Amino acid sequence: MASITIRNLKDETKKRLRLRAAENGRSLEAEARDVLDRGASESPLPEVKTGLDLFKGIIAVAEKYGGFDLEPFPDQPIGEPRAFRRPKKRK
Questions:
Q1: Cα separation of the two ends of the chain
Q2: For residue 20, which of 34, 6, 37, 5 has the smallest C-alpha distance?
Q3: Would you state the torsion angle of the CA atoms of residues 11, 17, 22, 25, taken in this order, to the nearest 10 degrees?
Q4: Which residue of 9, 15, 60, 91 shows the fewest CB atoms closer than 10 Å?
């Protein structure tokens, strides 16, 4: 089993945990373990989000309203590429 150390715990928190342990007939350590076990199992870990999740949301909205058609991307350049010149060096 793993162990952890909790630093900078407020005195009031430790006091309340000790009282709670006494009410439940457990040691402070057993009560802390129970609180952590219950807290860690209550909510699942959040799902990792990616750019694909954003895309799925957009598709879901589009399908709700009948989808959408996109114009095909042009095969040729939209315009002539710009000629970039390096600035002249100042002396």
A1: 71
A2: 34
A3: -150
A4: 91
pLDDT digits (tens, 9 = 90+) for 5-63: 999 999 999 999 999 999 999 999 999 999 999 888 877 777 778 888 888 888 888 88
Identify whether the C-beta of residue 17 lies closer than 8 Å to the C-beta of residue 6.
no
Rounded-to-integer distance, Cα 51 and Cα 84, Å:
33
pTM of the model: 0.47
Q: What's the one-letter identity of residue 5?
A: T
**Structure tokens, 86:** 């390096």
Alpha helices in 24-75 (DSSP H): 28-42, 51-64
For 58-91, give one letter per residue: b (16+ CB within 10 A) or e.
eeeeeeeeeeeeeeeeeeeeeeeeeeeeeeeeee
| Token representation of residue 84 | 């970039």
